[in-house]
Amino acid sequence: xxxxxxxxxxxxxxxxxxxxxxxxxxxxxxxxxxxxxxxxxxxxxxxxxxxxxxxxxxxxxxxxxxxxxxxxxxxxxxxxxxxxxxxxxxxxxxxxxxxxxxxxxxxxxxxxxxxxxxxxxxxxxxxxxxxxxxxxxxxx
Length: 140
What we know:
There is one protein chain. This protein has a domain of 73 residues: Periplasmic binding protein-like II (D-Maltodextrin-Binding Protein, domain 2), CATH 3.40.190.10. It is 54% helix and 7% strand. The protein is globular. It is mostly helical.
């Protein structure tokens, strides 16, 4: 899809729960980092976006935080984050995981918790505000 998007600027349409939402900004960052021009399609109702992906009206959907009744087996983003927060400390101690991180050329670090995590989140919020400004996202 990325090769198609690069060869056909603006032809990839992606849906999100709305203008300025985290999924919208994630789509903008994705496009910016890969040098793509994609068309954002905001939805107020999650089911409409899923229906449009299935019917081919849009090529991809970046979902929000609520689990959709149309796909109850797929966890909501928030639920997945909670699970990661619970399980990541144990995973980060796994020797096989640590070796894979080093093999990818990354530094092994411990998961952030408490105030350290809060500091990172505040810095990320500032970065997202900057990205939203860069993407031309306006308050509604």
